[in-house]
Amino acid sequence: MARDRRDYYYHQAKEDGYRSRASYKLKQINEKHKIINRGDSVVDLGAAPGGWLQVAKELSGGKVLGVDLQRITPIEGVETIMGDINADSTIKKIIKIVGEKGADVVLCDAAPNLSGNWSYDHARSIELSTSALECAKKILKPKGNFVVKVFQGDMFKDYMDKVRDNFVHVKAYSPQASRSQSAEIYVVGKKFLTAPLRKGDNFVVDIEKLGSSGDGAVLIEGFVVFVKGVEVGEKVRISITDVKPNFAFAEVAERLGKAENPENSGNPENPESPEKSE
Ligand SMILES: C[S@@+](CC[C@H](N)C(=O)[O-])C[C@H]1O[C@@H](n2cnc3c(N)ncnc32)[C@H](O)[C@@H]1O
Prior knowledge:
Radius of gyration: 23 Å
Number of helices: 6
Distance between the termini: 53 Å
Largest sheet: 7 strands, mixed
Bound molecules: S-adenosylmethionine
Helix content: 25-40%
Number of strands: 13
CATH architecture of the largest domain: 3-Layer(aba) Sandwich
Order of helices and strands: HHEHEEHEHEHEEEEEEEE
Strand order of the largest sheet: 3-2-1-4-5-7-6
CATH class of the largest domain: Alpha Beta
């Protein structure tokens, strides 16, 4: 069965003019998760021989850049660079090409050379996918999307948590075109977070204003946080429960009495700088 499926995508790639059977994995990931939209700029890390680049170009029609240790035979409308995704010099080259505003999508299908030793290969894969995540954090636009291949193993859960810290929606997905006995899985992160806070962070704040929903509304480094169950004039320790691209939610971890400057209550022009607490 697995062999039939491999042969099917191998032959299909030849017929459709794709450079690799991997093209169908990206097509299936995109059908399911809507990662690449028309006009998007896309950076593909570990892109040789270029099957994903061909699909990314078809889907976006925008700027597409491929990066690999190996040279990629030119594809019309696609830029390529040779480089190691672990190297700062490669990231600098990418930023120079995509511009300071960043890319809409970062893809990574990079794979280490497999040794056949499961835990060694898993560790190398986590190392590579961690580099891809660090790279994505430097080159993605706010709300951008990320897809990365990982070989499963005991460090997978921690890796997922790292991706969850940086994206609003995170899923693991195995496209049908992946071989059934393969350890590979794709982690899909949607809506890159650029908020100055993360789930679980604590802050001490004065509630000076309520939002239209009746929740407290405080500013933390210019970022709006809604706090449930508070009143204007209270001082509270809050714990962030959920972070969205433009605002976050928090719950009260501790009530600390009255705000120090109750006369400022309700004055959005004069928000007190909240202190982060451990
Ligand atoms: C499975 S192939 C990618 C196939 C590609 N998605 C396609 O559709 O044609 C994995 C690629 O990752 C590249 N790679 C592995 N480690 C890398 C690194 N540190 N920096 C850049 N590329 C890397 C390899 O050279 C290889 O070409």
